[in-house]
Design the sequence.
């Protein structure tokens, strides 16, 4: 398979893992094991994902997963999700799009302290 196409598939795969995932790879799978090291997508193997037991990354709208493919480590970062649902009793500033705007988009304006940027650096 073309390298660029497969790397694009791994980038897309990061949107379907971790919190908020909605694609299962095998019939009968549960979302519980989709991020487990050793799982495969094509001939790439999951090494690890952004382990987030305290929910810090999720609160910042961040997710990352690492794969091994052709003796390379490939890291896919989840970018902006344009879900604009406001949680019950919340404000527009509690929506996922506001989280992305406040936690990540500011990197484009050279605001280095954006939480998604700090999480990516880890």
Sequence:
């Amino acid at each position: 398979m073309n390298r660029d196409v497969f790397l694009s598939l791994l980038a897309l795969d990061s949107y379907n893992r971790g919190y908020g995932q909605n694609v299962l790879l095998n019939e009968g799978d549960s979302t519980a094991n989709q991020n487990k090291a050793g799982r495969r997508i094509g001939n790439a193997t999951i090494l690890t994902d952004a382990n987030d037991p305290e929910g810090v990354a999720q609160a910042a709208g961040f997710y990352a997963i690492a794969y091994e493919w052709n003796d390379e480590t490939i890291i896919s970062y989840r970018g902006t999700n344009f879900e604009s649902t406001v949680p019950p009793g919340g404000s527009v500033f509690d929506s996922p799009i506001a989280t992305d705007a406040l936690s990540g988009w500011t990197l484009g304006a050279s605001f280095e302290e954006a939480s998604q940027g700090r999480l990516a650096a880890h």
